[in-house]
Amino acid sequence: MGKVFEMDHPLIQHKLTILRDKNTSSKDFRSLVTEIAMLMGYEVTRDLELSDKEVETPLEKTVGKEISGKKIALVPILRAGLGMVDGVLSVVPGARVAHVGMYRDPETLKPVTYYSKFPKDISERTIIILDPMLATGGSLIEAIDEVKRAGATSIRTLNIIAAPEGIKVVQDAHPDVDIFIGHIDRELNDHAYILPGLGDAGDRMFGTK
Ligand code: URA
Q1: Distance 193 CA to ligand 1 centre (A)
Q2: Which of 32, 43, 46, 116 has its CA 20 to 30 Å from the CA of residue 182?
Q3: Across the chain, which distance is largest between two alpha carbons, in Å?
Q4: In the chain, which residue ranges form alpha helices assigned H by DSSP?
């Protein structure tokens, strides 16, 4: 079963409270998502493999460390996932950025992928799927399916807020995927919004309400 990491860092929890506030402007909302994604990016990369690397300081030779395992590709789910890209890139600037776009089929209510663009070497990379809200889990499951179809085998997700229901369905569908979360909220309401949540992340980010 994939692991679930809830990040309890005081800075993340503090910024999350401002993010939830309905009076926070779109401008501040975007900045906060970037800052939270940067802090989460630090945690999600904590277990990256290191190897020794010789380096010469102005005084002498020594042996430092360098990241030596799989390279990273970020996969934001359009559109709210885009808001997390810059924050994570600020701690892993060499990561590739792939994209997945989805809409909900009005008849089946299932997410359908209408766009995806991945690096050719996706199977050799650690994939970090970005979506601020893990609600029903439907679009995250479809995004994971999509990166697996493209050959990815090492996958983790980064979600700022998650509902317990969504975490469970993702874990059941993809037991090999680790889920990194800023905060696990109480539940989903009848319209698949997370409670207490923060409303529609995409609308608040881009001012489209
Ligand atoms: N997506 C959002 O943006 N907000 C929710 O509460 C659920 C899904």
Answers
A1: 5
A2: 116
A3: 68
A4: 10-20, 26-44, 85-91, 138-149, 164-173, 201-206
Q: How far is the CA of 106 from the centre of ligand 1 (A)?
A: 18
Relative to beta strand 154-162, strand 133-134 is parallel
Give the closest residue to 94 by CA, choosing from 79, 74, 114.
74
Tell me the whole-structure pTM to 2 decimals. Answer: 0.95
Task: Decide if the complex's ipTM is over 0.85.
Answer: yes
Q: What is the rounded CA–CA span in Å between residue 154 and residue 159?
A: 17
Amino acid in the structure at residue 183:
H
Smallest Cα–Cα separation from 78: which of 122, 131, 33?
131
The pair of structure tokens assigned to 23 is: 């009076």
- For tokens 């439907």, name the residue: 138
- Could you report how far apart the first and last alpha carbons of the chain are, in Å? 38
Residue 62 DSSP one-character state: E
Q: Is 115 exposed, middle or buried (0-12, 13-18, 19+ CB in 10 A)?
A: exposed
CA distance 132 to 117: 20
Q: Is 132 annotated as a binding residue?
A: yes
Residues forming a β-bridge with 74: 97, 128
